[in-house]
Design brief:
It catalyses: L-lysyl-[protein] + 3 S-adenosyl-L-methionine = N(6),N(6),N(6)-trimethyl-L-lysyl-[protein] + 3 S-adenosyl-L-homocysteine + 3 H(+). Its EC number is 2.1.1.-. The chain has about 300 residues and is of the alpha/beta class. About 35% of the residues lie in helices and about 30% in strands. It binds S-adenosylmethionine (SAM). S-adenosylmethionine binds next to helix 6, helix 7 and strand 9.
């Protein structure tokens, strides 16, 4: 299959909004090439710096991929209309190029480097060397065509919340697992059993591969399905990094399978929608016990569940 790579060069303040538009358009993944992140990476002590600073973009570039099929023109037109509606003409520079599926993965790999998240997690591309410090928990990722290489703020918010709430021995469900990153993190942080679900077969395949890569296949089961439709409780933690409207739809299902005082980590909420999501959580009996944000992205930690 052929794919269209869409690369949008944008001022930094629009990065999250553009990423969100791609996600709402249904692209499997979003890659952010942010010169600020590269500079941070280059400041860290490295055994070997494989990145040529002169090759870095001067402004952030947000990339996503759409299949070249009969829906492509309509999806591109919808994207351009939305970009113009939010920011007017001339803010974004859009470049597209067709690439073969076999070349897809390599097109963004050069910019994907190990990143530290929270207190002890490190997300490392499968093909990069990284010498872990004492106490660090290293997740190896090859997201392929699925969302979730650990650089997106909404993923990072989930990772840091997982790190804070997991004490060991929990049953966790990761809804919208993408590359499997959150499910793998939960297992490496001590969960006793993790179910990872996604409705995209490409994501399910990538997640299964990453689960094996991290040698947590005895703890993590990856299934294809719609939200929590076929998942049985009781569980200790539900984590979901999807868009606000999907989180709202998920809230009741999550409450039904959570143990009393179970925890719901809800992320992927773009600025302006956090009140809608909090309202839906309250209306289903959840208590919000933590709120975190990074740039335009919000995550909520809610407590609630059903008595047996
Ligand atoms: C933003 S990505 C999150 C990936 C990963 N969990 C992370 O945090 O980086 C959202 C994922 O949710 C999946 N998804 C969207 N709607 C879904 C649904 N109704 N049921 C299951 N998965 C869904 C998408 O296929 C995508 O892989």
């Amino acid at each position: 299959m052929q794919w269209l790579e869409i690369a949008i060069t944008t001022p930094a303040e629009w990065v999250e909004a553009v990423s969100n538009m791609f996600i709402e358009l249904g692209t499997g993944g979003v890659a952010i090439e942010d010169p600020a992140l590269f500079s941070l990476y280059l400041q860290e002590p490295q055994d070997e710096v494989a990145l040529d600073p002169l090759s870095l973009p001067r402004e952030p570039v947000v990339k996503a991929y759409l299949p070249v099929d009969e829906n492509l023109d309509a999806r591109l037109a919808a994207l351009k209309e939305r970009l113009t509606a939010v920011a007017g003409e001339g803010i974004f520079n859009i470049n597209t190029k067709k690439i073969r599926e076999e070349d897809w993965a390599c097109s963004w790999k050069a910019y994907y480097k190990p990143v530290c998240v929270g207190r002890k997690l490190v997300v490392k591309p499968a093909w990069e060397e990284y010498r872990a410090l004492a106490g660090q928990v290293v997740i190896e990722m090859d997201p392929g065509m699925a969302f979730g290489c650990g650089t997106h703020p909404s993923t990072r918010l989930c990772l840091s919340l997982l790190e804070d709430v997991l004490a060991g021995g929990e049953v966790v469900v990761d809804v919208g697992t993408g590359s499997g990153i959150l499910a793998i993190a939960a297992a490496l942080l001590g969960a006793r059993r993790v179910v990872a679900v996604d409705n995209d077969p490409v994501a399910v395949a990538a997640a299964r591969q990453n689960v094996e890569q991290n040698r947590v296949q005895d703890l993590v089961e990856v299934v294809c399905g719609d939200l929590l439709a076929n998942i049985e409780g009781p569980v200790d933690v539900v984590v979901a990094n999807i868009v606000a409207d999907v989180i709202i739809r998920l809230a009741l299902q999550a409450r039904k399978i959570l143990k009393p005082d179970g925890l719901f980590i809800a992320s992927g909420i773009i600025k302006g929608r956090e009140h809608d999501v909090a309202g839906a959580l309250h209306s289903h009996g959840f208590e919000i016990i933590d709120r975190r944000c990074s740039g335009e992205w919000h995550a909520l930690l809610a407590r609630g569940g059903c008595r047996p």
